[in-house]
Amino acid sequence: MTIKPVTYKSGTFALLLSFPLLLTGCNPSSLPLVGRFFGGGAVKEVSINVWGLWESESTLQPVLNKYMAAHPTVKIHYEDRSIMPLVDYKERVFTRAFEGIKPDIVLVHSSWVPRLAQGGGAWAVPSNVFEKSYIDNNFFPVVRETSIVGGNLYSLPSTYDGLVLVYNKKHFEEVGISKPPADWEEFRRDAISLTVRNDTHEKKVIVRAGAAMGLADNIDHFGDVLGLMWAQAGVGLPDAVASTQAIDALTFYTNFAKEDGVWDATMPESLLAFASGKVSMVLVPTWRLYELLPNMPDASVIGTAPVPQALTDNPVSWASYWTWVVPKSSPNPNESWDVVKFLVDPEQQTVLFSGTSKLRQFGIIYSDVSLAQNLSTNAYLKPAVETASYAKTWEIAGRAGNRRQIDALKATVNDVLAGKDAKESLTNLKTELSK
């Protein structure tokens, strides 16, 4: 058997002979010809701009630095946009997303996600970063309801928070109430018992309100409370906001002021009233405790509990949290989502919780379910964590930058308080909320 010699074209043979010399003396990626053969070429450097809220650069940047250390070609710059009013921040986010101007990653309220996604203003999470099933195992169910739009995943939660009942334990002891109310009828009875009036005055002025309930103008989270009541009544928003169930819930809410007189327009804003001992119960997200604790003469009187229920055997709570989105303005969606994946990783959430705990009384609730469950020993956070598995949310959440929706709801409450027909008022509200 004769083996024929292999012949080469002179150019190819010369290149093959030159490989050992090139590889010992040069970086192949710096040579265009060799780079093409090896699939190399110039390494792409990616610059990613992150917009956040309430976390300073000193808190978040160290975590981002860890990512950059493992990914040398990625440069991340974090901007804390807390100085902007939330309404302006939301407008800026939507404008940038739809006009194709950076940033690459933005922190948004969960209620913004559907409009961003439906309007084509956000990149869906690539399947190679996270499968949609990942959120079922790692985040609370409400995340699926707000983050998946049209079958695609559009956001990953930075943290979690929800409505809790905050009450004055000393006030409870004074009137013989041994535990916080579990349902709304019990809540109403307690609110009436806790209310103290100056009966010598002709108008029986409230000295101490039983609960911040019934009005809209001086209750910062009235939208959350009404959202909670409607969710518990099975009212789908906005489609069923003019239903009989919605009317009944709104009437029950306004009657705290109209019929029971446990709160009125003379009272200061609800959180300020609680801090000064002028109201016994408020319903607020846990982050409001950051403001309450340092402003209470005696913070030990603060008690927290799960929100009251309409049906205790079918509980529903209310969530209001912030989540990461990659807007269509980003030219680097894959790299941006990989950064978000890093930020929501349990290890990094633990680092951030530790960092924020040094600046505040406690950290914000983890978005990761397994980590959040470890907060059951924190009396302030426990009620929100325990009720998170059956939470709902929508665009009427307070302090979420949804000014149009909140203003429309406030007008509705005020109309009903003024004696206007609830059905008509809620029908008008439905029109506004459906825009």
TrEMBL record:
This is Extracellular solute-binding protein. InterPro entries: Bact_solute-bd_prot1, SBP. It comes from candidate division WWE3 bacterium. PROSITE patterns: PROKAR_LIPOPROTEIN. Pfam families: SBP_bac_1. The lineage of its organism: Bacteria, Katanobacteria. Signal peptide: none annotated.
